[in-house]
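Hypothesis: this fold can be encoded by more than one sequence.
Test: take the structure tokens below, design a sequence, compare later.
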């Protein structure tokens, strides 16, 4: 049995245990209340929790018939995704150390909305939880070109998507939402 076959069979066994999960998309530095809200819903639904980070510096090259995904970096000198996943894993381990809900962390690759949708299909997830994007001109430009992950998830699959605000809300009388 090859290493990729072993990983694929391990992932298939883990996927079976994670059926009907709550999936939460996490980025490094994201406020902890996004994960806390996902945990709250996992408890309410008596579901396992899957913490996912999507490495946008890699893309899917092909997927084996057994579901194992092969990927390649966009930039051969860039390994930022691995460091970001480690940061997300550490934050999840700290936040979920004493919880009564089974959970795991996964790294996905490629387009965030499509990667999360594909995992939700594999797990027949009950709910997808994502945070809003940070305010700022850079994030506005990125969203202009790539679109909102939450909006794309809401329009491309049938599961409920819970969008958790990242931080302070913008006052109603403030005309420009992204002043930073």
């Amino acid at each position: 049995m090859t290493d990729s076959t072993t990983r694929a069979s391990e992932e298939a066994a883990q996927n079976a245990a994670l059926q009907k999960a709550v999936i939460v998309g996490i980025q490094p530095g994201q406020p902890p209340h996004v994960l806390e809200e996902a945990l709250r819903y996992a408890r309410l639904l008596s579901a396992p929790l899957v913490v996912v980070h999507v490495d946008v510096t890699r893309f899917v090259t092909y997927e084996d018939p057994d579901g194992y995904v092969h990927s390649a970096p966009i930039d051969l000198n860039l390994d930022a995704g691995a460091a970001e996943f480690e940061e997300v894993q550490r934050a999840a381990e700290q936040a979920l150390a004493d919880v009564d809900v089974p959970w795991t962390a996964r790294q996905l690759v490629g387009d965030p909305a499509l990667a999360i949708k594909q995992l939700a299909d594999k797990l027949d997830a009950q709910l997808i939880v994502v945070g809003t994007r940070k305010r700022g001109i850079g994030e506005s430009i990125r969203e202009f070109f790539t679109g909102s992950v939450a909006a794309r998830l809401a329009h491309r699959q049938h599961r409920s998507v819970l969008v958790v605000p990242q931080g302070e809300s913008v006052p109603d009388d403030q005309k420009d939402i992204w002043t930073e």
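The CA atoms of residues 33 and 166 lie 8 Å apart. The radius of gyration is 17 Å.
Hypothesis status: open.
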